[in-house]
Design goal:
single chain, mainly alpha, 5 helices
């Protein structure tokens, strides 16, 4: 598992419509995790959080505690890249 895998996932999910659709259609969290692994990604929730923090920093700002909670599985978008396109974010969780 690695942060780099999470970074790579965040890049790919932005442009890979079929992957987005498979994740959205998945029945539950475990099904989404299997899709992600089958797509060649392997990362933990902590690694994913770190990658999203890096993405926010690259966008010129830090995540608020509320945004971090959303990335970790809450609802709503954070508006800087992950917005509803990650495995730990609605509708993927």
């Amino acid at each position: 598992m690695s942060i780099q895998s999470a970074r790579d996932f965040l890049q790919r999910i932005e442009t890979d419509q079929p992957l987005q659709e498979r994740l959205e259609a998945a029945a539950d969290l475990e099904a989404r995790r299997q899709i992600i692994r089958a797509a060649g990604f392997d990362f933990t929730l902590d690694e994913f959080k770190e990658a999203t923090r890096e993405l926010a920093a690259a966008a010129g700002r830090e995540l608020t505690p509320e945004e971090l909670q959303q990335v970790a599985g809450g609802s709503g978008g954070v508006g800087w890249g992950c917005s509803k396109k990650c495995p730990y974010h609605s509708p993927y969780m």
